[in-house]
Amino acid sequence: MSISRRPRRRRIRQFRSCAERPGVSPPDPQDISVKKKGQGIVDRLAFYRQDLGALEAAARLRGLTPRRGVDFSSNDYLGLAQSARLRAAIAGALERGVPVGAAGSRLLRGETEDQTAFEAAAAGFFGAEAALGFGGGYVANFAVITTLPQRGDLLLMDALSHASTHEGAQAGRAEVATFRHGDAGHAEDVITTWRRGGGTGAVWIAVESLYSMDGDRAPLDDLMGLADAHGFLMVDEAHATGVFGPGGRGLAHHLEGRDNVVTLHTLGKALGGSGALICGARVLIDFLVNRCRPFIFATAPSPLMAVAGQEALAILQDEPWRQAALQERVALFGAEMGRRLPQVPLSGSQIVPLIVGPDAATMDLAAQVQARGLDVRGIRPPTVPEGTSRLRVSLTLNALEAEVIRLVEVLEELWPDL
């Protein structure tokens, strides 16, 4: 177990040239990116081309491709992104003069009625004292991790935490440690070691209630016990909001409202819009408003997304069949896989990782599935650990039951060729 302690921060002197930097020699003239006019040109982008070439050789080069085929890849779990009600809500907002853009940060330009109303409604819906909106889940998670844990605290995160958690840990003030994925006992051991080593601050335990690449759950109740003894629990509900819990309130709903629980609910997955909410004690939300740089200095989310978010919460309450229908899709996929490919383990959630292993084999299999009109994507490192490249099957209401069965048939056909 390794705990990363923060070095003391220093002001860095800015130098005018490489020659003025201690220990750094000027580059060889042959290595200078662009020579003077008339002397020829050396490729200043060579490093970037070489890096991309290395990714391609390792079957890890990524590119942007158009959407096509039946949706088994998005996070639009309840099919709300194309919802007629969301469209109508946004159209109505435009009609009554709600602006498209926020035109500045919330502290600079001021609040909009729609954002204020949405945050109040969301806090009530999820059971928190207060909520604060951000432009997206990544920035919201990064913002909380870099703002709330202080020097002398310990940020303790699951080994498979989202990239935004890792980035926030690197940029934040607290000491950092990880625990084995889903292992609350190991988390306790890490805390004990830290305390014995002189750690006296608060422990901030950061987990996802439902993991985005594995589809499994965090042991929230066990971790809550540790948080009660040592500090705080931060739960990223990105892939559980709208899907699990009473009325789609998430897997951590029974913990909401505690003064040492902070939750993140995204608007861009099951809720069909864009943005995210941080929910927690009023004093923590007020602290974010006053101390959180990604909140203070960023342009606020579009007021239209607040309108869409509030309508999405209303849809969850008015149309509970969506949550039930998604669970039926999950059960159907599980039953068909159990009948046709019983050797393949399943997650039991709407996110199903089908582990292939080698990067090239994973991407080849994904291409074959896509060629049959089913949009399943391959996931490779660094998104997932080395040697665990996979197909990530995402079950949504955008796929009919017959299409779910068709996907399993295609997997049965192709899987033996791996």
TrEMBL record:
It comes from the Bacteria. Its cofactor is pyridoxal 5'-phosphate. Keywords: Biotin biosynthesis, Pyridoxal phosphate, Transferase. Residues 70-399 form the Aminotransferase class I/classII large domain. GO terms for biological process: biotin biosynthetic process. SUPFAM superfamilies: PLP-dependent transferases (SSF53383). Pathway: Cofactor biosynthesis; biotin biosynthesis. Its EC number is 2.3.1.47. InterPro entries: Aminotrans_II_pyridoxalP_BS (IPR001917), Aminotransferase_I/II_large (IPR004839), AON_synthase_class-II (IPR050087), PyrdxlP-dep_Trfase (IPR015424), PyrdxlP-dep_Trfase_major (IPR015421), PyrdxlP-dep_Trfase_small (IPR015422). GO terms for molecular function: 8-amino-7-oxononanoate synthase activity; pyridoxal phosphate binding. It catalyses: 6-carboxyhexanoyl-[ACP] + L-alanine + H(+) = (8S)-8-amino-7-oxononanoate + holo-[ACP] + CO2. It is an enzyme of class 2 (transferase). Belongs to the class-II pyridoxal-phosphate-dependent aminotransferase family. BioF subfamily. Homodimer. This is 8-amino-7-oxononanoate synthase. It comes from Paracoccus liaowanqingii.
